[in-house]
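Final report, Chapter 2: Outcomes

The project's central promise was a pipeline that accepts a single protein chain and returns its three-dimensional structure in a standardized token representation, suitable for archiving and comparison. That pipeline is now operational. To close this chapter, we reproduce one record exactly as it appears in the project archive, with the input sequence first and the structure output second.
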Amino acid sequence: MARNSELVRQWEILRAIDGARNGIAIAKLAAERGVHQRTIRRDVDALGRAGFPLHDEKVNGTSMWKLRCRPFSRLEDTGLGLMELCALYFGRTLLDTLAGTPLLDDAERAFAKVERALPLASRRFLDQLPRVLTAKPDGRKKHDGRRLREILAR
């Protein structure tokens, strides 16, 4: 399996766990991604070793995986959720367009604060993502000009 698909799957798992207020079962994560439960268990373990505070709670005999944000004491100070913080850290590469502007220094100071809120192992995991996740310029939906004119004429 390509390393890229593993990273993408782990990122998706992290987002799914974060989005499940009552937790999410390994079986559901595996079914949604079309992989074996052992693969998801390895991914959850890897995310835990990367510093993400994952834990499971038994609900009716099933382990439900959750993110515990308390270990990120600095995270609470920012007012941001874990995934919001990760998205900002991940998106810092977009600041390259600010090179040579006075805004770059301010943005870099802001990202230094975000960086301090994440453990080193988590930052290392997130540092790998820009190499495998990119925005596609042709990802827009094609619009039917005739249909658009009809709608606007109403």
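Archive annotation: Strands lie at 24-25, 54-59, 62-67.
This record, like all others produced under the grant, will remain available to the consortium after the project formally closes.
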